[in-house]
Amino acid sequence: MSLGSAIRSTDYDEDLILVERFLAGDPEAFPTLYARYYDRVFSIARGILIDADEAEDAVQEVFTLIYRNLSRFDRRSRLSTWLFRIAVNRSIQQSRSARYRNRWTTLTEADEQADESAVPVLPDSRITFAMEHLGASDRAILTLFYWEDLSLQEIADSLGCGVNAAKTRLFRARERFRRYFEDAPE
Fold first, then answer.
1. Is 186 strand, coil or helix?
2. Residue 163: which residues within 8 A CB-CB, separation 6 or more?
3. In this predicted model, what pLDDT tens digit does every residue of 142-156 receive, in sequence order?
4. pLDDT digit string (tens) for 84-120?
5. Complete domains list, the chain, with CATH
6. CB 130 within 8 Å of CB 180
7. CA distance 120 to 34
8. Judging by beta carbons within 10 Å of its beta carbon (0-12, 13-18, 19+), is residue 102 exposed, middle or buried?
C-alpha cells in the first residue's frame, strides 16, 4: 500500500464517519465536511466558471445540495468523488445559464469590476484566454486533472464515465486548449 493510497483510505474512512455522524444528527459533522472540502470545490468551480463570484455562488449551491441529499450518498464510492461530481455538474449548469444572462453594466460599474480582478490570475495571459474560450466541460476536465491532480480513474468517477472516455475527453480538451492558446494574443 502506497502512502497516497493510505492517506486516501484514511480520508475515506473519516468521511464515512462524518457522514454517519451527520445522519445521526451531530450538528458539528457537516461544518467539518464543509471545511474539509470547501477549497477543492471552490477550485473546481473557479476552474469551470472562471469568475470568482460565480464560483462562490456555485460552491454554496453545491454544499446546499449535499446537505439536503447526504442521506442519498450510497457509499459505493468515496464521498470526495460524489462531491466533486456534484461540483462539476452544478458548475457546468451554472456556466450554461450564465451564458444567457444579460450582463449589461454602466461604465462606472465596469471600471470598478475591472479593479477587482474577477478573472483568475494565471501565469500567462494566453492560458487565461484559452480557458475563457473553452466550453465548461473542457474546463472541468482540465481543472480536475491539472489543478486537482486527480487520476484518470478519479476523473472518470467524478464525471460518471469510463476511464477510456475520460482519457479521450482529456485529450480533446487539451487539443482545443492548445488551439486557443496558440491563437491567443500575447
1. coil
2. 152, 153, 156
3. 999 998 889 999 999
4. 999 999 999 998 876 544 444 444 444 444 444 333 4
5. 3-102+112-183 (1.10.1740.10)
6. yes
7. 23
8. exposed
